[in-house]
Each structure stands twice: as structure tokens, then as C-alpha cells.
Amino acid sequence: MDRTLGEFVTVLRKIGVEVSAAETIDAANTMDLIGYDDRRVLKMSLAMVLSKTEDERALFDDCFERFFSFYKFSDGHGEEGEIEEGGHSAQVGDPQPAEGEGGPAGGSGGGGMGQESEGGEGSTALRDLLLNRDQTALSMAMAQAARAVGVNQIVLFTQRGMYTRRIVEEMGLDAFDQEISELRRQDEEDAEAAALLRRLEAARRFLFEEVRDFVEENIALHANAVGKEFRREFLKKAKLTNIERRHFDDMRVLVRKMSKRLNAMYSRRRKVSKRGQLDVRRTLRGGLATDGVLFDTHWKSVKVDRPKVFVICDVSGSVAAVARFLLMFLYSLSETLPKVRSFAFSGQMGEISDLMELLTLEEAIPLVLEQYGGMPTDYGRSLMDFRDLAINDIDNRATVIILGDARSNYGDPRADILRDVYRRARQVIWLNPEGKSLWTTGDAEMASFAPYCTHAFVCNSLATLERVISKMLRAAM
Amino acid sequence: MKDATREKVGSIEVIEQGFEQAGYICDTNIATAIYLACHLRKPILVEGPPGVGKTELAISASAYLNLPLVRLQCYEGLDESKALYEWKYGKQLLYTQILKEKLGDLLEGAVGLEQSIERLHQFGDSFFSEEFLDARPLLRALREQNGAVLLIDEVDKSDQEFEAFLLEVLSDYQITIPEIGTVGGDVPPLVVLTSNATREMGDALRRRCLHLYIPFPEAERERRIVQIRVPDISEKLRHQLVSFIQNLRSLDLKKLPAVSETIDWARTLLLMHADQLDPEMVRTTLNVILKFQDDVERVETEVRSMVRSAREGC
User: Fold this and answer.
1) In this predicted structure, what is the pLDDT of residue A262?
2) Closest partner residue to B211 among A51, A270, A302, by Cβ?
3) Which residue from A minimizes the CA distance to B212?
4) Residue B273: what pLDDT?
5) B157 and B273: one domain?
6) Could you report the per-residue pLDDT of B34-89, keeping only the tens digit for each?
7) Which of B169, B187, B213 is the last residue of a domain?
8) Domain range spanning residue B90?
9) What pLDDT is attached to residue A74?
10) Same domain (yes/no): B34, B78
11) Residue B29: which of B3, B51, B47 has the closest Cα?
12) Which residues in chain A have their CB less than 8 angstroms from residue B81's CB?
């Protein structure tokens, strides 16, 4: 398969367009079919084969333009007027520079280096290309050199210098430099040689500048994508309490991705109910197995089974950071969980469902923290409030999620209320951001709550959060 | 692919022109999709706002390629017995009743259950043969010997199970019926799936399809569409009408007018013998292009200025 295509697909995957192997094969077939003649049509065709949603299409378009933008050597080179002239006059395709003086001098220079094997030839080639300003050939040479040194492996910005150097060397810098130093040695006596030296030095600077630009573009293409991926992988596993504010944007993207997957997995679970209209067709068909006797009845009505979810979040200092992400998660699952009722407490409890639904998450969470946070945590009082607010709505379809460290400042935890909740609900899940070893230390009341929880988990990173929610959905269906 | 068909999809330009003759103005993007679909034998998943001609694309393709159109409209609860095949139970029952005596003759003299069954076996499974098979759209499309255009409309409305079931059909273009065997034509059908994004389609399905997004057309293409669909309309009115609609789409409306509404409106205006837009007439016919009262009320106040700018634009 085409190596360019392979590299392109790798870049696409890095920026988040998920391309499967089968699609890559399709893309290769498409390229065979369409050919490279018409860039616009090729782009369209590849887009259809490789990007499968609108979002991916936007990413694809951007990536295609950058990946297939053939790096062009710029032709402007202001100050060095003489080179400019040389470049323009040498367009006839003559391998030697057109000016009378430059030609022979250069020729002798090259001849002097004749004993050097390929390096010498490379030098002459590079030198000619530079002096002739043959942009296309230069770009080609650079692209080849770049591939040889593997510029697409670049990861960090600091590698820029190294890769620039490697590419230039691959293009035949050594011999080129040797020629320059040789010219330097002859120096002074020969005005022509001095002129050539100046031109060559300028050309060398020009070459470096161009290659550095090229490498920088490659950083933008390859390294940024990797960096982002790397950061997100890290954020998934990092402790939620340690995540800094500047990463919140990334976190939101992550949460959205995760919740999309959960939505897809659980949103359309249906249950065939045992009543309703008789499905004649399926019943008759089922009857075939029993010799036409309609033994198994099938019914038409299907119920979408969606759990009711009650979330209770401790919003006192240490737990608040986790609460933010739990709420973010649950409210992005609206397809699967259309009815989430949420409560927040530290000293006392209040319902925050309305706030969460009406406002965006960014607006709602500070408000919640302001309203309910800041007081010393009192589990007894808060659970009493919960009993008053919602216990009558809890039935066997309800899942109750409690997020908290169970540190009640030595007050009565009122575990008996949790027992009532536990008896009514389908499941009670306790998420504790503290490690298990801390659950029974100090004022932690986890020991008295734990018997009344269907599950109790440690929950301190996005990855655990996702696992817990996935588990909850599976159990609730 | 038959030679005639092959010729018709020989290049992207040919397709573009051919579709225009069939009454469908497609841009290069759409033509490329058809071209790829025919040559790579892949289904096309068409997405886009309602009314931009997703379904029409399949209908025009069938007209242009001169292949039969088989349409499968998806909805919640669609299952394989409605999409693929079903046995004609009634007919089977009826026949067994009628043939009861024949069966009696046949079994005459047979001793014991084993012998009777032996005799029945000699006659094969005639009750589960093509005679009693009720072919549904998918099977019909696969059985067409010269190929067909299979339109699976609004696939997002179907259940996830059905989507999974489609995967086999779409990748192999064949179906296995346990009682009969594997069915698959020599020429696979051209499959067009349309979706309105009621729900996210699964990745597995997307991966098997070419993805084509049809947005609202730009003014130039929309004018050509109106021209080909409502040829009697005057050129001046056509320009004004299209620029009015294009303008309308930049507003914040509940439902933006689609191409089908533009065509309806053009027909309406033609019927009213209009030769150019005037605010009064636009106001009375707004309900042709806007389908929500909120939208109508919102636009009504701006009709005068919008008509003016539409007239000036031409």
C-alpha cells in the first residue's frame, strides 16, 4: 500500500478521526480509482471513505490540507540581490548558473571535490538546486530527506533543531560545507570566488530557514496531536482533586466522549413486556416449532426501561472537585437517564435538580457550592433532609448514588435513614473519593453506612467514575 | 455491473450530467459519492437536514441507471420478518388443509410412523419453498439479477438490533435463509441509506459506508434545481425567490426551509401568476415554506425588508 496514505491515516488517527484498517484499504482502492490528478476530487473521495461524521469531516479537511500541502521553498530572498538575479536568469534548465563567472568557478569547485564519492555529487546537486532556486526539486529533495530521517516521529518542540540538522545533512550538507570552506581558503585573491562564497553562504542560511519552517509545520501536524492524546490519557487517570482549572476544557471533552459511549450502550435497552396487543405474526411463527399450536405468545408492546437516578453529593471542600465531575457525567447522560434528581449537602441538604437543568454546568456548580458548601459536614442532618425531600419517590426502579467521604465530624450519621432508602431502592451506590484504608479512620462513618449500600467504591479519577457509572447502568437495566 | 450501467458511471462528469437529465442537480461531491459507490461496491450513508434531497438522490439514481428502486422505510420495531422475508403462513395452512386427503392417499399402506415419515421425506420440503416465501425489500433487492437501487430510508429510526442485522447484508450483499440457502444476486445493488440523525448511528455501520453529507444548496445550485423542477417560472422570479430563501436560512428559525419547500413555493407562486416577489404575496404564502407558527410570526415582520433585498440582489 501507498506509504503516504499510511502516514496520512496515522496522522488522522492521532487527531481523533478513528480510521479502521478496513477503511484504510478502502482508501487505497479509492486512490487507485480516482488517481492523483484532481486534488479536489481526491479530497472529497477520501473524506467520504475515511471520515464518517460531520465532526470528523471538519478534522479531516483541516488535516488533509496540512498533510498534503507540499512544502514550497519561498522564492523571495530580499537582501541578497545577486542571488535573486541568479535564480531568475537560471530558469532555462541549464545545470550551471547562467552567469559567466559563477559557472566556471563553481565548476572548478565541484571538480576539486570530484574525488569524494556520492557526497560530492550530492553537494553539487544541492548547490545547483540552491543556486538555481529550483523550488520543486528542492521541495522534493527535502521531502525525501524528511522521510529518510523520519520527521513524522517528532514529538516535542525542542527536537526542532535536531530534525532540521538531520534533514539538511541528509540533503547533502557536508559536501556543501566543504565547498564553502574550500572557497574560504582561496579567498581574497579571487573576486569571483569571493562572490560565489557570499552566494553560497546566503544559500546555506536560506536552506536552514526553509527546513526549519518545514520542521515546525511537521511539529504542528504530528506532535500536537500526540501531545493532546498524551494529556488526555493522563487526565483520565489523574486524581480528580488534583486536576487544575486549566484542564477543565479537556476534561469536558473527555466526559462527553465517555458519556457518548455509555449512551450508545445503554440508551435503547428495551424490555418486551408481557402484555399488550398480540403479535400474531411472531406468535404464528413461534407456533411452527410446536406443530402449529400457539404455545408461546408474543406481545407487541415494548417498554423502554430507564432507571430513575437520585444523586446525593457532598459539596464540602475536599469532595467538591469530584462532585463536579460526577454531576457533569450524569447530566451528559441525558439520553439514557432523562430523569436525574440531584441533591447537594454539607451542613444541610437541598435539591439542585432545577439549577442543574436550567443553567449550564459552568454556571450551576459555583452556585451550588456557594449555596450548600462551606458548612461543616453533618451526615445525620443531611440525611434527615433527604428523607423529607425525596424518600417517598424512591421505588424499586430508583438508583441512589451517594458521593461523600462519610466524615460526619463525630455527629450521629443516622445510618437508619440510609437503611430505609436501601430497602426501598433498587440499588444504593456509595462513591468515596478516599482510599479504602482511610474509610474507618478518624470521624469516618463508612463502617456504619457500608451495610446499607449495594456497592461502595473508591472513586477518584475519571476512569473509575466511568467504570462505576457503567456498572450502575448495567445493574439498573 | 452491466455494461450499460458501467458506461453510465464511467466518470464523475458523466454522472453529474446524467443526473441532471434525470432531474436531479448534483454537485461534484454527490456525483463522486455515486461514482465511488458504484466502483467500490459500498453503500452510501447520506446525512443532512430534512428536505435537501436525500431520498430523491436514490430515486434519481434508479431512474438514471435504469434499475428498479426497492425502498425500505425504517421505523421503530422494524424487524427482519418485515425487511427480509416471511413465510406465507396463511397459504401454508390453507394448502395443508386442502391437501389433507392427498396426504392420506400418499400415506396409505404405510405401516408405522417411521414408514410414513419416510414417504413424506420423498416429497421434499415443498411447504418451505419459494412458492411460500414472501420476499420483503431486502431480499427483493438482492434477487434482482441486473442489480437494483436499494433505498433504506431513515435508518436512524430503526432499532439498534436491526442496524446490526443490516451489517451482514451491507458487507456481503447476501442473505442466508435457513430453509432455502444463501441468496445473493450476481450484481450487488447500489445501496443508499438516509439518516436524519434522530440518533447516532453505530460506528460499525458507518465504517461500512461511504459518508455523504448533503447541506442546504448554495444559491447557484438551488436556482438550477428550481429551474429543472419548475421550468415554467420566470428567470427574474427564480432569482428573487432563491435569494429570499437563502436569506431566510440565515435567520434563527425552528425549521429552516429546505429545497423541497423552495420547489413547493415556486410552484405556488407560479400558480398565482406572480412574476416577481411582492411583500403581500410572500406574507400570504409564508406557510408554504415555514412550518411553525412561531417562525411565520417571526418572519412576517421582516418580510418587507427581505423582499426588498431579494429584489435588489437580482
Assistant:
1) 72
2) A51
3) A48
4) 87
5) no
6) 999 999 889 999 998 888 889 999 999 999 999 999 999 998 888 888 888 888 88
7) B213
8) 85-132
9) 61
10) yes
11) B47
12) 281-282, 285
A88 vs A390: CA distance, rounded Å: 84
Pick the CATH number of A260-269+305-476 from 3.40.50.410, 3.10.310.10, 3.30.420.10, 3.40.50.720: 3.40.50.410
Co-location of B50 and B185 in the same domain: yes
Of residues A252 and B266, more confidence is placed in B266
Q: What is the ipTM of this complex?
A: 0.83
Q: Who among A57, A260, A268 is closest to B159 (CB)?
A: A268
- The sheet carrying B149-153 orders its strands as B69-73, B149-153, B190-195, B44-47, B210-213
Final residue of a domain: which of B213, B244, B259? B213
d(CA B105, CA B111): 13
Binary contact (B29, A284; C-beta < 8 A): no
Q: Which of B40, B160, B202 sits opposite A26 (nearest CB)?
A: B40
Q: Give the distance from residue A227's alpha carbon to the nearest chain B alpha carbon, in angstroms.
A: 25
Please judge whether A40 and B28 are an interchain contact, meaning their C-beta atoms are less than 8 angstroms apart. yes
Within a domain: B182: yes
Q: How far apart are CA A238 and CA A433, in angstroms?
A: 12
Q: What is the mean pLDDT of residues B106-124?
A: 77
Residue numbers in chain A where pLDDT is lower than 70: 1, 70-124, 187-189, 223-227, 240-246, 264-275, 301-306, 334-336, 476-477
Non-local CB neighbours of B17 within 8 Å, separated by 6+ positions? none
pLDDT in tens, B279-297: 888 888 988 999 888 888 8
The per-residue pLDDT for A107 is 36
Cβ–Cβ of A30/B40 closer than 8 Å?
yes
Residues B73 and B155 in one domain: yes
Contacts of A310 (CB under 8 A, 6+ apart): A340, A341, A342, A343, A390, A393, A394, A398, A399, A400, A401, A425
What pLDDT does A114 receive?
34
Same domain, B143 and B208: yes
CA distances from A4 to A1, A28, A168, B12, B187 (A): 9, 10, 21, 25, 33
Say what the pLDDT of residue B57 is.
92
pLDDT bucket at B190, cuts 50 / 70 / 90? very high
Residue B76: per-residue pLDDT: 82
Chain A environment of B211 (Cβ under 8 Å): 47-48, 51-53, 57
* Chain-chain contact of B209 with A57 (C-beta, under 8 angstroms): no
What residues of B are in contact with residue A281 (Cβ under 8 Å)? Answer: 81, 86, 89
pLDDT at A188: 64
Cα angle: A323, vertex A329, A334; to 5 degrees: 130
One domain for residues B67 and B107:
no
Contact B77 A302 (CB under 8 A): yes
Q: If you write DSSP's letter for every residue of B188-233 in order, what string do you get? A: PPEEEEEE--SSPPPHHHHHHSEEEE--PPPHHHHHHHHHHHSTTS
Q: Is residue B313 part of a domain?
A: no
Q: Is the pLDDT of residue B149 over 90?
A: yes
For residues B225 and B267, what is the distance between their CA atoms, to the nearest angstrom?
13
The verdict on residue B63 lying in a domain is yes
Number of domains in chain B: 3
Inside any domain, residue B314: no
The answer on B98 and B75 residing in a single domain is: no
Question: Which residues in chain B have Cβ-Cβ distances shorter than 8 Å to A270?
Answer: 159
| Residue B198 and residue B162 share a domain | yes
Q: Do B202 and A45 touch (CB under 8 A)?
A: no
Taking the C-alpha atoms of residue A150 and residue A471, their distance in angstroms, rounded to an integer, is 44
| Neighboring chain A residues of B39 at a CB cutoff of 8 Å | 33
Identify whether the C-beta of residue B86 lies closer than 8 Å to the C-beta of residue B96: no
Q: Where are the domains of chain A?
A: 3-67, 98-233, 260-269+305-476
Interface of B with A (CB under 8 A): 12, 28-29, 32-33, 36, 39-40, 42, 45, 47, 77, 81, 86-87, 89, 93, 159-160, 199-200, 202-203, 206-213
- Give the residue, A468 or B300, on which the prediction is more confident: B300
What pLDDT was estimated at residue A81?
37
Distance, in angstroms, between A275 CA and closest chain B CA?
Answer: 16
